Amino acid sequence: MQWLYARIHPNGSMAFAQWWSKKSRMNHGTFGAFQGPDREHQVQYARQRIKQDPHLEFFIFGHRHIPFDIRIADNTRVICLGDWIGNFTYGVFDGEDFQLKKFLADQGTIIKQ
Q1: Most CB atoms closer than 10 Å: which of 39, 71, 88, 100?
Q2: pTM of the model
Q3: Average pLDDT across the chain, whole number
Q4: Is 82 left (phi over 0), alpha (psi -120 to 50) or beta?
């Protein structure tokens, strides 16, 4: 299959790869609107995990493509980085605090989310 795929023109192979990726995200729930703090899988996982270790401060996730920063305990946050392609969001850790930031391409500036 890899040999056959390599023989497809790059325009066709990229279109196919993007279609397949989008289909996969839709089927597995990693693409779409924010489900709310009680329905997002990352938040549910963090709430269960914090019961085992209440000293954790940050749960940082990628792959969901939707940026969010949710406090689940006094000293614990669940952060999803979003993406660079549609949201232009990224994270910065300074050794103590974690910030979710957004790059504004039209202004050439970076702001705190």
Answers
A1: 100
A2: 0.68
A3: 85
A4: left
